[in-house]
From TrEMBL:
GO terms for biological process: choline transport. InterPro entries: ABC_choline_sub-bd, ABC_Gly_betaine_transp_sub-bd. It holds the Pfam family OpuAC. This is ABC-type glycine betaine transport system substrate-binding domain-containing protein. GO terms for molecular function: choline binding; transmembrane transporter activity. Residues 2-232 form the ABC-type glycine betaine transport system substrate-binding domain. Coiled coil: none annotated.
Length: 262
């Protein structure tokens, strides 16, 4: 939407530490994906030093991140963290995670090293989000057992009939992995650019809606066309997000948003 409002933008893909350091060093302006509590340990030093600012309210309140299984496996009895060890043979002693160094992988490794839930003999398979999802897709097509790190919002919740495990004993965060997602900016960003500050404050989502928004991107469809279609199909979102916002040259945003493919 920023491009559609006449702003020039650049997106950066990097690790959490590099993103927060980039905001601190004024190389990045904002980050829409601070997951609390998963990323809290990483961001806390930057917040305490007043090098980044977390917006006053979350953009997403019903997020979740914890271990999950295909529902057909839950139906066979793998419903809790304590059940995983009972299925060690079927699982091949593996738990599938995301990229090395992520908060989720660190927490899963801690469970294994402490033999929590009897997982001491298990191996964490580290690769990437895409690599993990490919492994899950392969297992589901073969109706095989697999435990993986799942989260919402994400299209996996639409594409895979999946069940989040319970009984985590806060190993992946409190309340069985329930999380909130926040926007992080440079400390004075809202004062320097109040128009975009309003837009960022307006941007709120539900996990279900955001999972569906992300699906076209996972299918390698054009981001601009996908955004245009979502706003066309959901005018209430467009009105809510752009309330009080203008284009770069000062025109009412809702009537003058121009989404075109770069």
């Amino acid at each position: 939407m920023l491009d559609g409002l006449g702003y020039s933008t650049k997106q950066t893909s990097a690790s959490q530490q590099i993103i927060f350091a980039g905001i601190r060093d004024q190389r990045l302006d904002l980050f829409l994906g601070y997951w609390n509590p998963l990323m809290t340990q990483t961001i806390t030093p930057f917040v305490d030093a007043k090098q980044v600012k977390v917006l006053d309210a979350p953009s997403l309140q019903d997020a979740r991140a914890t271990l999950a299984v295909p529902t057909y496996l839950a139906d066979k009895g793998l419903k809790t963290f304590a059940d995983i060890a009972k299925f060690e043979k079927e699982l091949g002693g593996k738990i599938y995670g995301i990229e090395p160094g992520s908060g989720a992988n660190t927490q899963i490794k801690a469970m294994i090293s402490k033999n929590q839930f009897g997982l001491g003999k298990f191996q964490l398979v580290e690769s990437s989000e895409a690599g993990m999802l490919a492994a899950v897709d392969r297992a589901v097509r073969r109706n095989e057992a697999v435990v993986f790190f799942g989260w919402a919002p994400h299209p996996m919740n639409v594409n895979v009939k999946m069940t989040y495990l319970t009984g985590s004993e806060n190993a992946l965060g409190p309340d069985e992995g329930k999380a909130t997602v926040w926007t992080v900016t440079a400390p004075t960003y809202a004062e320097q650019c109040p128009n975009i500050g309003r837009l960022l404050s307006n941007l709120t989502f539900t996990a279900e809606d955001e999972s569906r928004m992300m699906q076209p991107l996972l299918d390698h469809k054009d981001a601009f066309e996908s955004a245009k279609q979502w706003l066309k199909d959901h005018p209430q979102d467009k009105k809510r997000w752009l309330e009080g916002v203008t284009t770069f040259d000062g025109k009412p945003a809702a009537e003058n948003l121009q989404l075109t493919t770069k």
